[in-house]
Amino acid sequence: MSEEKVMAAKAKEHIQGTIGEVMITEEEIEAKAREIGKKITEDFAGEEVVLVGILRGAVVWMTELMKNIDLDVKIDFMACSSYGASTKTSGVVKINKDLDSDIEDKNVIIVEDIVDSGLTLEYLKEYLGNRGPKCVKVCALLDKPSGRKVDIEADYYGFTVGDQFIVGYGLDYNQSYRQLPYITVLTSE
Ligand code: IMP
Ligand code: MG
What we know:
The protein has 189 residues and is α/β, with parallel strands linked by helices. It has a single domain (26-164), classed as Rossmann fold, CATH 3.40.50. It contains 5 helices and 9 strands. The strands form 2 sheets. The protein has a 6-stranded mixed β-sheet. Helix 3 links the parallel strand 2 and strand 3. Helix 2 (26-43) crosses helix 3. Bound molecules: inosinic acid (IMP) and magnesium ion.
């Protein structure tokens, strides 16, 4: 390999990091989506639900989940990010894209990729709760309990993970690896 190519590969590795073995397979995630989809279908029997996907990490999980909910399902999206490191502990989240639809009197289910500190979720639940929805529930693909800073839990979880940085199935490291059809970990930055 030419020196230039080696440099390019190294640069890419620096940006993308390296990843480990498959931790949760596509089949396991699909089975979990069927299980949770069935549970949501039963919990909201005969009602309409609005799935609010949190961009961008929740996109893959929400797509799989919604196929398994046998109700009148509407979808919408929000994008948010934490305000700088100094305000992070306050749980103040910046909304980069708000909902396009009205959620008054609606059954809202926030769909997240992972609950880590819980700060995003705490903020979003209150933010959406102020718009008069019938209820605000949360469905997260992953739970990382070791990262929790606030006492908040999702109503539906797919899997529990340890104190590791997770990528794949929508979750990214520097925007890479979202397309992996399985869950794995970042092994080096
Ligand atoms: P929070 O700390 O619970 O507010 O998590 C906020 C967001 O951080 C999540 O929605 C994810 O997008 C991201 N995040 C937290 N942990 C991980 C991880 O292990 N891998 C990738 N993204 C993560
Ligand atoms: Mg996120």
